From TrEMBL, chain A:
InterPro entries documented for this protein: AAA+_ATPase, ABC_carbohydrate_import_ATPase, ABC_transporter-like_ATP-bd, ABC_transporter-like_CS, L-arabinose_ABC_transporter, P-loop_NTPase
Origin: domain of life: Bacteria
Name the UniProt record assigns to this protein: Monosaccharide ABC transporter ATP-binding protein, CUT2 family
GO molecular function, one term: ATP hydrolysis activity
A single Gene Ontology CC term: plasma membrane
TrEMBL record, chain B:
Membrane-related topology note: Multi-pass membrane protein
NCBIfam families per record: GguB
A cellular component annotation (GO) from this entry: plasma membrane
Annotated keywords: Cell inner membrane, Cell membrane, Membrane, Sugar transport, Transmembrane, Transmembrane helix, Transport
Protein name, as recorded: Xylose transport system permease protein XylH
Subcellular location: Cell membrane
Keyword ATP-binding tagged: no
Summary of the function given for this chain in its UniProt record: Part of the binding-protein-dependent transport system for D-xylose. Probably responsible for the translocation of the substrate across the membrane.
Transmembrane segments: 46-65, 77-96, 101-119, 125-142, 147-165, 201-219, 240-259, 265-282, 312-331, 352-381
Length: 512, 421
């Protein structure tokens, strides 16, 4: 009989309006590296939050058995107490504190009189750093380390807590190849020490290289658990599990009549705003009138950064490359010039970057094109209501009136408000970043219908999405983006989820 | 690829039923239950009006009516006008998510510059006023530059400004007070318009202005209402609408009546009224005003909507400098001179007025009218406690608690709104 350190049985977690996890089962053997993979939004992170107690017992259905005991965690302290430590994708280190201070934060090494014994702490920290293979002084501020080394500090911190089950959420997403290889080596060594690892990852080559088992999650359900020792599980096999076979479609039909080229971007390169690495590397692409073009890429591939750097340099530095709208070169220096040039960008994170949640529909719809409603600086409030009311009807925003507060609408309706805002700027090309993230199936259909209406009116639409069925369902042409480089382009007729996923996970041999 | 979604969620189906949507919208106009809806939906706003009325009534009772006597009502206006002027600028700063700690020092410096020109150099009163405004604008541009273009938090920039401009005041005045101003300068803050139309024991002109103000208020409300109905927006029921105008009209006329029985219409009240109306329009109706709210509500979203955040922030501080200069002129006029310590702690009164008046600590929320009512609550409380002979120390304790409770109420409200999401 297998010795399972962790069993999660029939986990179901519901958010208002969305079932994030439905009857998920996960069994992790003691001392293995267990990978979890699935598309963005499949429910991987939610599952880990359930496990670590971020979502306390009672807020989900199902049972967690850890070390043979049923457990109920009410917070992350409870789970850490029994040796479950989660390392999030966004590292939770304080940049101004030293390595040792970070390692023992909240878990300070006290000496006499309850004061912190720094000699002891630094000595222990040095020991931990050796065990993770990090050659740094414990007194070095964490902010001076690169992301790869910070990741190792996080692992050292986990080890200081006597970790038995280590959960890593996309540990290599922000790392370069060398750092990734080093990290994977470390995971193997931890396995030899008997520490169990759960690793969430998109990088299939890494999964097949280090994991013992992989569990595939899709749409909030467990699809299958594959044993990688048998040797017959290929990356293609995992991809098939991730994308599934059910292409029962939720996409409205559309006849495609692409016209002249509207947007052309040439040799576009963008650097990270603070770190010394390229986020987008020599990207070339075009979008034509009446055409929906998709950009497929995994999280961290540089999709959003690409879009935002085009949108008036709203991201990045040292941006080089040329862009043309209707054949005329444009050089927008800020967002307002980009809007004037006919570019609109609807963000993937509407709550933080798209909407003023404390204001009403009317004020949000007019926000990007107030000038159109104003004469000599005075806004025509009645005209504004008329415009907003028009969009509320045509977009079918379900709200009692345009004076309803946007923060109280559902995700789908909020997204319609975002779209209304950008349509009112009357753009030539509309960039939609994850247009259906976090909204339900019915609202998704409506968003697709709106997109179809736009291209029928001759607009050019660029859709960024990590949901491949969505791209296959609505696009005419798809580019794949991997590690900042465009790795492929194909008409939708030739594209399959498998060949897209392959290009999206393509390693950076081109970059080297 | 086939459609499998039921037709109910298709937009075409929705547009077909659209005309029917008009019916419920119209029904809203005549609803009788909307007194409660109006109160609850605007609790943040209506709460402070209720609080204001309660506080006025409380002090009227505690002082046996003295606090509402003609002379005292006039006094409140004269005494607190400069705080209200500062609060107009401050509420805009706060809506955008900043703070300005330097306005007290700016009041002192602008008043000092004006006093040096008028008293020491013998220049006419208007030259002193213009110089003060020029200094205010320059200070605003200075602070706006650091906040908007260098990106230093306003708290730090204006904390530095508080020290900087206080020091410059001492320099300009050579550490001594200057007084008195010629009488024309004094009229700015202590002058009255009266006797223009005569009257028997009261000033008819003041009453006329009060009546004109009420008529103007009724007219503009009526016009807004018509437009809203035309655009099929919900409005309050007609009886409620009339009741609101009658109530506001009664308060304004009672106020004018009291002024008319004292010394007439204070000039500074006219200045204040013009500023309130102008800034009410600027914040609500102009692109600039909208962008201020957008920046305070969600900075990232405003930036990605093409708002030129830096320029807007810059002009917010220039405007604050301008209003601080106006307040500096009014204050120096009222105190009939310039003192090195003038305007001490004014910034805190102005900030308190904004928060009591419903501005949100996190930005994005607040109104000029709210800040005015907040300022008046502070004014009526201070004045009432002075009339009652309550010790300065107790006054300070009470004011502190009122500010704390007002913001606690705001935070509580927001949390409640958050949970209903």
């Amino acid at each position: 009989m297998d010795d399972h350190i962790l069993e999660m049985r029939s986990i179901t977690k519901t958010f208002p309006g969305v079932k994030a996890l439905s009857d998920v089962n996960l069994q992790v053997r003691r001392g293995e590296i267990h990978a979890i993979c699935g598309e963005n939004g499949a429910g991987k992170s939610t599952l880990m939050k359930v496990l670590s107690g971020v979502y306390p017992a009672g807020s989900y259905d199902g049972e967690i058995v850890y070390d043979g005991q049923p457990v109920r965690f009410n917070g992350i302290r409870d789970s850490e107490h029994v040796g479950i430590v989660i390392i999030h994708q966004e590292l939770a280190l304080v940049p101004y504190l030293s390595i040792a201070e970070n390692i023992f934060l909240g878990n300070e090494r006290r000496g006499r009189g309850g004061l912190i014994d720094w000699n002891k702490a630094n000595a222990e920290a040095a020991e931990l750093l050796r065990s993770v293979g990090l050659e740094e002084y414990p007194v070095t501020p964490v902010g001076q380390l690169g992301v790869g080394k910070q990741q190792l500090v996080e692992i050292a911190k986990a080890l200081s807590k006597d970790v038995k089950l280590l959960i890593l959420d996309e540990p290599t997403a922000a790392l370069n190849d060398n750092d990734s290889a080093h990290l994977l080596d470390l995971l193997r060594r931890l396995r030899e020490r008997g520490i169990t690892c759960i690793m969430i990852s998109h990088k299939l080559n890494e999964i097949t290289a280090v994991s013992d088992n992989v569990t595939v999650i899709r749409d909030g359900r467990t699809v299958e658990t594959l044993n990688l020792h048998a040797g017959e599980v290929t990356q293609e096999r995992i991809i098939r599990g991730m994308v599934g076979r059910d292409l029962e479609s939720y996409y409205p039909e559309r006849e495609s009549h692409p016209g002249e080229e509207v947007l052309r971007v040439e040799d576009w390169t963008v650097w990270h705003p603070t770190q010394d690495r390229k986020i987008v590397d020599g990207a070339n692409f075009t979008v034509r009138a009446g055409e929906v073009v998709g950009i497929a890429g995994l999280m961290g591939a540089g999709r959003t950064e690409l879009a935002m750097s085009i949108f008036g340099r709203a991201y990045g530095r040292n941006i080089t490359g040329r862009m043309f709208v209707h054949g005329k070169e444009i050089r927008p220096r800020n967002v307002s010039e980009a809007i004037d040039a006919g570019i609109a960008y609807a963000t993937e994170d509407r709550k933080h970057y798209g909407l003023n949640l404390i204001e009403d529909i009317r004020r949000n719809v007019s926000a990007a094109a107030l000038g159109k409603l104003a004469t000599r600086g005075f806004v025509n409030g009645n005209e504004e209501i008329k415009v907003a009311e028009g969009y509320r009807k045509s977009m079918n925003v379900k709200a009692p009136s345009v004076t309803s507060i946007v923060g109280k609408l559902s995700g789908g309706n909020q997204q319609k408000v975002v779209l209304s805002k950008w349509l009112y700027t009357d753009p030539e090309v509309l960039i939609l970043d994850e247009p259906t993230r976090g909204i339900d199936v019915g609202a998704k259909y409506e968003i697709y219908t709106i997109i179809n209406r736009l291209v029928a009116d001759g607009k050019a639409v660029l859709v960024i999405s990590s949901e491949l069925p969505e791209l296959l369902g609505i696009c005419d042409r798809i580019y794949t983006l991997s590690a900042g480089r465009i790795t492929g382009e194909m008409p939708v007729g030739q594209a399959t989820q498998e060949n897209l996923m392959e290009l999206m996970t393509k390693e950076k041999e081109l970059a080297a | 690829m086939t459609r499998t979604v039921p037709p109910a969620s298709e937009p075409e189906a929705q547009t077909a039923t659209a005309p029917k949507d008009v019916a419920p919208a119209v029904a809203l106009h005549t609803g009788t239950s909307d007194v409660r809806a109006l109160l609850t939906s605007n609790l943040r706003q209506s709460g402070i009006y209720v609080a204001f009325v309660v506080i006025v009534a409380l002090f009227a009772i505690l002082t046996d009516g003295t606090s509402l006597s003609p002379g005292n009502v006039t006094n409140i206006v004269l005494q607190y006008s400069y705080i209200l002027i500062l609060a107009i600028g401050m509420v805009i700063v706060i809506i955008a998510g900043h703070i300005d700690l330097s306005v007290g020092s700016v009041v002192a410096l602008t008043g000092a510059v004006s006093a040096v020109l008028v008293i020491r150099q013998g220049m006419p009163w208007w030259a002193g006023a213009l110089a003060a405004i020029a200094v205010g604008l320059a200070i605003g541009a200075w602070q706006g530059f650091w906040v908007a273009y260098v990106g230093i938090p306003a708290f730090i920039v204006t904390l530095a400004g508080m020290l900087l401009f206080r020091g410059l005041t001492l320099q300009v005045l050579d550490n001594i007070s200057l007084s008195p101003f010629p009488s024309e300068y004094g009229r700015i803050a202590s002058g009255f318009l009266n006797g223009l139309l005569g009257g028997n024991g009261y000033d008819a002109f003041t009453l006329l202005i009060g009546a004109v103000a009420v008529a103007g208020y009724a007219f503009s409300n009526f016009r807004t209402r018509i437009a809203r109905i035309k655009y099929q927006q919900p409005v309050e029921s007609f009886p409620l609408f009339v009741a609101k105008i009658v109530a506001v009209g009664a308060v304004v006329m009672a106020f004018a009546w009291q002024l008319a029985h004292a010394r007439g219409l204070p000039i500074v009240l006219i200045v204040l009224a013009v500023l309130i109306i102008a800034y009410g329009v600027i914040t609500k109706r102009t692109v600039f005003g909208r962008q201020v709210y957008a920046i305070g509500g969600n900075l990232a979203a405003a930036t990605l909507s093409g708002v030129k955040v830096r320029a807007v922030n810059f002009w917010i501080f220039v405007n604050m400098g301008f209003l601080a200069a106006v307040a500096g002129i009014v204050f120096s006029s009222r105190s009939n001179g310039a003192q090195p310590s003038a305007g001490n702690m004014f910034e805190l009164d102005a900030i308190a007025a904004c928060f009591i008046g419903g501005a949100a600590v996190t930005g994005g929320v607040g109104t000029v009218v709210g800040a005015m009512v907040g300022g008046l609550i502070m004014a009526v409380m201070s004045n009432g406690m002075q009339l009652m002979g309550i010790d300065q120390s107790i006054q300070s304790v009470v004011k502190g608690l009122v500010l704390l409770l007002a913001v606690a109420f705001d935070v509580y409200n927001k949390r409640r709104a958050g949970t209903s999401r």
